[in-house]
Write a structure and sequence with these properties.
Blueprint: E1 2-6, E2 15-20, E3 32-34, H1 36-44, E4 49-52, E5 55-58, H2 63-82, E6 86-88, E7 95-97, H3 101-113, E8 118-124, E9 133-137, H4 139-169, H5 173-177
Antiparallel strand pairs: 1-2, 1-3, 4-5, 6-7, 7-8, 8-9
Helix pairs in contact: 2-4, 3-4
Length: 181
Amino acid sequence: MYHVQYDSEKVGNNILGIFSDDVHDSIPAGCLQITDDQWQDLIDNNGLRRIENDAVVVIDHPLENIKADRISALNESFVTALNGGFDSDALGTTHKYDSEQHNRDWIQASVVSGNIDELITCDDKLANADSKHPRVHTVSQSQQAMKDGMTALLAHKTKFRTLRDSVNAATTKAEVEAIVW
C-alpha cells in the first residue's frame, strides 16, 4: 500500500512525498492512502499532480504557460530549419548550401567583395552524400546563392511568425497543442 504526504496548508496541496508500507517502518500522520495505479500515475507524471478533496488530480497549467512552451518549441524548430541548409540553382543545377550563420556570412562577404570568384561549399544534390566540397562561384553565382538563401530564411521566418501568431490567438490547450512546425 502507498501513502501520499501533501502540504494541506498551502493552496494547491502539493505532494511532498510518497511512502510505502513495504519500505517504510512508519507512515507520517495525515497521509492519503493511494492504490498501486495511482502511485504509478504519480511517478509517471511527476510534478503534474496534486491532492484535491482527498483525491489525486491533474494540475491544469495556465494557458499562457502552455503557449509560452509551444512558442519556445516552435523557435527551436525554426532555428533547426534555418540552419538546415537551402537549395540553389546558382551553379546551373541544384546544390544544397550550408546555412549556419558563418556560412551565410561567407556568401554575403563574397557578394560584397563584388569582383572576385569565391569558393563556396555546397553539396551536389544529384550526387552521393559525400559530394560536399568548395566550388568556385562567380560573383553572379554568389549573388544568386545569397538570394536563394535569403528566400529560404524569409520563408522560415514567415512560417515561424504565422505559427507563433496562431499560438497567441489560440483559446484552448487543444488548439495550442495542434500547432506544430
